[in-house]
Amino acid sequence: MIYPSMLFLHLLSAVAWIGGNILFFAVAPRLRTTPPAMRELGRTFRVLSWIAFALLLTTGAYLVQRGWDWRGWPLSLKLTLVGIALVLKVLHDFWIAPTAARRKGGFFTAALQIGRTNLILGIVILYLSVRMRG
Questions:
Q1: pLDDT the model gives residue 107
Q2: Per-residue DSSP letters for 95-115?
Q3: Cβ atoms within 10 A of the Cβ of 13, count?
Q4: Within 10 A of 50 (CB to CB), how many other CB atoms are there?
Q5: Global confidence as pTM
Q6: pLDDT tens digits, the chain, 134 residues: what are they?
Q7: Number of domains into which the chain is organized
Q8: What pLDDT, on the 0 to 100 scale, is given for residue 68?
Q9: Contact 46, 102 (CB under 8 A)
């Protein structure tokens, strides 16, 4: 049995993670000319997004234990994409974005591209969640 409160927490965490990525997609290019604002927004979202990501992993594991069909293709693909998103997030948050904040050049573009890729992955993961049965 899937408990509605856990599903709600899972969805709320997804909204925080994906919504933050949408915000960055819209705002980051404009904040490039204001590095202190970009750093502050980045640091704030990094904390929020890691909390959301941890909650997504925790509640997702719980939901699989309680009835989500873990053998179906939506969950298999979803977990693969979550793994890719996690690797990209680690690279972005702990190497590329901090390097971009210290120097100019291609690192800012790389940080934007990884952020955009994670946004697309998040949207696809959300769609796959809708396809799952519990």
A1: 72
A2: IIHHHHHHS-SHHHHHHHHHH
A3: 21
A4: 14
A5: 0.86
A6: 678 899 899 999 999 999 989 988 888 778 878 878 888 888 899 999 999 999 999 998 998 888 776 677 888 899 999 999 999 999 999 998 888 878 766 677 888 889 899 999 999 999 988 887 65
A7: 1
A8: 73
A9: no
User: Residue type for 87, please?
Assistant: V
Q: How far is CA 61 from CA 6, 14, 56, 122, 132, in A?
A: 11, 14, 8, 17, 14
In this structure, what is the dihedral angle of CA atoms 21, 77, 91, 105, given to the nearest 10 degrees? Answer: -60
* 3-state SS assignment for residue 25: helix
Residue 2 φ then ψ, to 5°: -95, 125
* Residue 90, domain extent: 4-131
Chain centre distance of CA 81:
11
The answer to whether the CB of 3 falls within 8 A of the CB of 59 is no
Please enumerate in sequence order all residues whose Cβ is within 8 A of that of 91, keeping only pairs 6 or more positions apart, or say none.
Answer: 114
